[in-house]
Specification:
Blueprint lengths: L5 E11 L2 H11 L3 E5 L3 E5 L9 E5 L3 E9 L2 H13 L4 E7 L7 E6 L5 E6 L18 E9 L2 H12 L2 E8 L3 E8 L7 E5 L4 E8 L3 H13 L3 E8 L6 E6 L5 E5 L13 E4 L3 H4 L10 H5 L15
Parallel strand pairs: 1-4, 5-8, 9-12, 10-17, 13-16
Antiparallel strand pairs: 1-5, 2-3, 3-4, 6-7, 7-8, 9-13, 10-11, 11-12, 14-15, 15-16
């Protein structure tokens, strides 16, 4: 197994009670494309991404079913599974062929908080296309952030077991560390861990073609009546733009672009004080970060140490 077994973020899987409403929102409004369905399960692709799908929606009790990451090959998948078992990590599904779109080879396990993680390789690439200028739809899934009541434990667990590296930390003089930005490739972050009152999805972020398309997407969502919870603005950590919205079931989702890339030979993780207005928004165009703004992404407590039915 390579020293860093995870190559990238593949998809985020959500279950919701009002499946039809959620599906219509993510396709018609948000801009994803339904590529497959299977009896109350929809697989949604981003037009600019070679991933078979970036969001899976399932009809059921509200929860985040799983987070999926990629590995380089089946050998790395098997080696990672063997190492996790040796370390006492609870396996949900042993390595095997996948029956989801694009096939592949993978397995599932619980992280230290109890959410389900999937790691897979050899998934067939999807025929995708270049997103055109001014086309306000996602290019790909950018990153996923989760809430944890013990983010430091989560940070250390993902570093030890999955090889994630810390890029930067958001800190408060009064509350300590608030968010850890973690990377598995040269993107500043593909995953992040926020301090929250319970384990849940904080937000899923989708990359737009550029600043013009990001702003057009933000305006499109506002005109559609979607709830803007924070933004538009530009973060300091990661240097990426942000516009956060709620989907119909209260999950926070983000349009972003221009996320920084990391030079592994020169990068040193930084501490960014959230009381400095430039930390949260370099432009000053969004509402200031506050407890009320932060609470919009706490989400409902997730279903833990219980695998989804599919």
């Amino acid at each position: 197994m390579t020293a860093r077994p995870i190559t990238h973020l593949r998809h985020v899987d959500l279950a919701v009670p009002d499946f039809d409403k959620q599906l219509a929102f993510y396709t018609t409004t948000w801009g994803l494309t339904q590529v497959a369905d299977d009896n109350g399960i929809a697989f949604l692709a981003a037009e600019g991404s070679p991933e078979q799908y970036v969001v899976r929606l399932r009809r059921g009790e509200k929860r985040m079913d799983l987070i999926s990451f990629g590995a380089a090959n089946a050998t790395d998948v098997d080696a990672l599974a063997a190492q996790l078992i040796a370390d006492g990590v609870q396996i949900v599904r042993e390595p095997d062929k996948l029956d989801t779109p694009g096939g592949g080879y993978g397995f599932r396990f619980f992280d230290v908080d109890g959410r389900v993680v999937e790691v897979s390789s050899d998934v067939e690439l999807r025929r995708h296309r270049k997103i055109e200028e001014r086309e306000a739809i996602p290019v790909k899934l950018s990153h996923c952030v989760v809430n944890s009541p013990d983010p430091t434990r989560m940070r250390d667990w993902y570093a030890q077991h999955l090889g994630f590296r810390l890029s930067d930390t958001l800190v408060s003089p009064h509350m300590g560390d608030l968010m850890y930005f973690m990377r598995c490739n040269d993107w500043h972050h593909s995953f992040a861990i926020a301090r929250g009152p319970h384990a849940s999805l904080h937000h899923a972020s989708f990359e737009m073609r550029g600043l013009e398309e990001w702003m057009r997407g933000t305006g499109k969502m506002l005109r559609a009546g979607a709830r803007l919870t924070w933004g538009p603005g530009r973060h300091l950590a990661g240097d990426n733009t942000f516009s956060y919205f709620h989907d119909p079931h209260g999950n926070t989702i983000e349009y972003t672009t221009a996320i920084a890339t990391i030079d592994e030979d020169t990068w040193h993780p930084g501490l960014h004080d959230v009381t400095d207005p430039l930390t949260q928004d370099q432009w000053g165009t969004s509402d200031p970060m506050s407890e009320s703004v932060a609470s919009t992404s706490f989400n409902d407590p997730d279903v833990l140490f219980t695998p989804p039915p599919v």
